[in-house]
From TrEMBL:
This protein's record includes keyword Hydrolase: yes
GO molecular function: endonuclease activity
Keyword terms of this UniProt record: DNA-binding, Endonuclease, Hydrolase, Nuclease
UniProt xrefs under Gene3D superfamilies: 5' to 3' exonuclease, C-terminal subdomain, 5'-nuclease
Domain 5'-3' exonuclease: 1-263
Tree of life domain: Bacteria
Record-given protein name: Flap endonuclease
Coiled coil (UniProt feature): none
Database matches in InterPro entries: 5-3_exonucl_a-hlix_arch_N (IPR020046), 5-3_exonuclease (IPR002421), 5-3_exonuclease_C_sf (IPR036279), DNA_polI_H3TH (IPR020045), FEN (IPR038969), HhH2 (IPR008918), PIN-like_dom_sf (IPR029060)
SMART domains: 53EXOc (SM00475), HhH2 (SM00279)
Pfam families in the cross-refs: 5_3_exonuc (PF01367), 5_3_exonuc_N (PF02739)
Lineage: Bacteria, Pseudomonadati, Myxococcota, Myxococcia, Myxococcales
Length: 289
């Protein structure tokens, strides 16, 4: 059984945007981040031993969640020269010989969650290559884990609990209570990371938290009365934020496990690299189809 790497290519593109020097084609098109992503994916399959790989992207930033909540993240504030590289990096990933899932209605995180659910039964291990805390809800024991390639760290279920104070099954509830600035929802006033973790450690989910702190264990958390009052008054908001935080696992992915196997890079990768002025990248390829 193979190990499956599911890569958050949106994260990789943003990371490259900030880490890789600008590079422009003669017509002024910015391609530096695309070159950076392709470089790190070549490293993944050649130096890090990945054999079965799929990459998920946010082909557009908006998703079905924007219809649920007006404040959810949009493309506002994202540089146009970064947005323009999403279709370019998708083309490059395909040319490299890897599967790419470009998301429109869903988000890249939903594709990764769906891929983890789909391929976990067939894989020795599924590695979600992202540091995004949203994906912590997908971790299962040591079988489905998060891989932070930049820090070279792996989060299994015990590590998720140590880092966030809750089990993966409670991550969406935890995010709903504390908020997620990156995704654009605020959480509930007064609910911090530690207080949310302590309460969820006992009750597991927002729906199971009693409205009165009198029904909470004594001395569970400082300011229990205030927290309970806030949650009771804002229960609908908390459940909406949880809906935003919960990743979908029903994205229609058509590939089989065999389709995810990296069999080598097609010859057309040279043409793509010439297109983006990265003629040196093909020289790093060890396996060609």
């Amino acid at each position: 059984m193979p190990r499956v790497h599911l890569v958050d290519a949106t994260y990789e593109l943003f990371r490259a945007w900030f880490a890789v020097p600008s590079s422009r084609l003669p017509d002024g098109t910015e391609v530096g981040a695309t070159r950076g992503v392709l470089g790190t994916l070549i490293k993944l399959v050649q130096n890090e031993g990945a054999t079965h790989v799929a990459c998920a992207t946010d082909h557009v930033i908006r998703s079905f969640r924007n219809a649920l909540y007006d404040g959810y993240k949009t493309e506002s504030g994202v540089p146009a020269e970064l947005l323009s590289q999403f279709p370019l990096v998708e083309e490059g990933i395909r040319a490299l010989g890897l599967v790419v899932w470009p998301m429109v209605e869903f988000e890249a995180d939903d594709a990764l969650a769906s891929g983890a659910k789909r391929f976990a039964p067939e894989a020795e291990q599924v590695l979600l290559a992202t540091p995004d805390k949203d994906l912590a809800q997908c971790v299962r024991g040591q079988h489905v884990v998060m891989l932070d390639r930049r820090r070279n760290t792996v989060l299994d279920e015990d590590a998720v609990r140590a880092k966030y104070g809750v089990l993966p099954a409670s991550i969406a509830d935890w995010l709903a209570l504390v908020g997620d600035a990156a995704d654009g929802y605020p959480g509930l006033a007064g609910w911090g990371e530690k207080s949310a973790a302590r309460v969820l450690e006992v009750f597991g989910s927002i729906e199971r938290i009693p409205e009165s702190s009198k029904d909470w264990p004594a001395n569970l958390v400082r300011g229990a009365d205030r927290l309970a009052t806030t949650l009771a008054a804002s229960k609908a908001e908390a459940l909406l934020y949880k809906q935003l935080a919960l990743l979908r696992t029903d994205v229609p992915l058509t590939e089989t496990l065999d389709d995810l196997e990296y069999k080598g890079t097609p010859p057309e990768f040279r043409a793509f690299c010439a297109k983006i002025g990265a003629e040196g990248l093909p020289e790093r390829i060890a396996r060609w189809l």
